[in-house]
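From the methods appendix. Each design record in this collection lists the tokenized structure first, followed by the designed amino acid sequence. Records were kept in a plain field format so they could be parsed without special tools. The example shown here is representative of the layout used throughout.

RECORD:
FOLD TOKENS (408 positions):
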């Protein structure tokens, strides 16, 4: 089968092969540049995924809670203020007014995936002579486990919550010296007490949560905290976690209930991620510019070295557009070949780095996220960068006068 290539491709490949040392050096430069971009982008993606998992593993995307109680000045007749010094009142544990109707309304919203009612408050966990202050979280297991995957994070036992059962964190279990099957007495601030059987130990990847949270059945928590039939919060998850702040504002405006998004409660996380993204983008831009200037410098030298060949080609009938395309093709080929090797180097470095970089406890430093669209985009970007870098030398070559070029 006869193979045929356009004239521009034949000339471009021949020029690259004749200057193979220059071509190898620029391909090596593109390889290193693309490898750095792929490696850093994958690292940032993995770290972001890990941090997101740790944050959202133990909380909902949006939490609806009753608005704070506010004290108002005492007014006399004719609206004359008779008491101007107003102290902030202590905040009682209160239920969301008509929380069932709000829950049903939210469940019908297209952007909402799950809604669960909870009752939470402070309590004292007592085992023998040991006691710890804890946060009592009363839940409806079927709904709540769709938001926080407690069963998937158990280290021992089962996530079973009958009226006399409790699930606690691994850190709290260590502090109290208890295990699955032991009995634990919970005493709420109201004075109510309940003796519960530990059915499971969880590890949500957050030491504070593992030490603080204890989970009981919803009715048990309502009885302990004196909120029969009430709910102190509605936990909500969304299809788009990054839209939580906008959705929270809409919910608060529609229901008159305070809605806190995970974005607002983790503002420092977003500040850190924004800084990392900005620095990563700056590094990628600088690397891309260095690759572009490297390709451009090599092709400029190539134009100078091959001015006679270009003049001969023009004298033999080659058009300016063909000469222009020869050097644009060279830039694109250098970028494409370098990006292929660079993507392989970046992905290989990521796998090796992930295998050897471990936390103090032996767990992985970050989850390995192999996004195979990243090499594709990197290859496309490097090819376009090569073509763009070749534009100036290509235009210069196309404008050479044949007679002047042949004379040197």
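DESIGN:
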């Amino acid at each position: 089968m006869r193979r045929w290539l356009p004239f521009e491709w034949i000339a471009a490949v021949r020029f690259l092969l004749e200057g193979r040392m220059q071509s190898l050096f620029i391909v090596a430069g593109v390889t290193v540049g693309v490898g750095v971009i792929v490696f850093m982008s994958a690292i940032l993606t993995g770290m972001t995924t890990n941090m997101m998992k740790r944050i959202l593993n133990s909380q909902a995307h949006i939490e609806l809670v009753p608005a704070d109680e506010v004290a108002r000045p005492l007014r006399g007749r004719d609206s004359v203020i008779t008491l101007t010094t107003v102290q902030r009142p202590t905040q009682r544990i209160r239920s969301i007014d008509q929380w069932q109707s709000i829950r049903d309304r939210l469940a019908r919203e297209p952007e909402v995936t799950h809604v669960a009612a909870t009752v939470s408050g402070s309590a004292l966990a007592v085992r023998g002579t040991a006691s710890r202050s804890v946060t009592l979280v009363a839940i409806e297991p079927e709904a709540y486990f769709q938001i926080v995957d407690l069963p998937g994070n158990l280290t021992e036992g089962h996530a079973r919550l009958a009226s006399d059962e409790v699930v606690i964190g691994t850190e709290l279990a260590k502090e109290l010296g208890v295990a699955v099957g032991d009995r634990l007495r919970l005493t709420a601030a109201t004075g109510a007490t309940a003796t519960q059987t530990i059915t499971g130990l969880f590890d949500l990847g957050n030491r504070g949560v593992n030490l603080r949270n204890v989970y009981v059945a919803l009715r048990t928590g309502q009885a302990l905290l004196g909120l029969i039939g009430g709910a102190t919060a509605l936990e909500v998850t969304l299809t788009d976690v990054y839209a939580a702040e906008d959705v929270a504002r809409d919910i608060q405006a529609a229901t008159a209930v305070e809605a806190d998004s995970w974005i607002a409660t983790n503002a420092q996380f977003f500040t850190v991620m924004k800084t990392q993204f900005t620095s990563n983008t700056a590094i990628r831009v600088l690397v891309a510019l260095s690759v572009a200037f490297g390709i451009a410098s090599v092709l400029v030298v190539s134009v100078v070295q091959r001015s006679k060949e270009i003049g001969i080609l023009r004298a033999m009938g080659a058009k300016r557009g063909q000469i222009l395309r020869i050097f644009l093709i060279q830039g694109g080929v250098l970028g494409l070949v370098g990006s292929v090797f660079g993507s392989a180097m970046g992905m290989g470095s990521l796998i090796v780095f992930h295998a050897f970089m471990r936390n103090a406890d032996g767990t992985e430093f970050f989850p390995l996220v192999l996004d195979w669209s990243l090499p594709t985009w990197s290859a496309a970007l490097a090819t376009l960068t090569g073509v763009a870098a070749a534009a100036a030398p290509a235009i210069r070559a196309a404008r050479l006068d044949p007679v002047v070029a042949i004379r040197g």
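APPENDIX NOTE: The CA atoms of residues 184 and 389 lie 71 Å apart.
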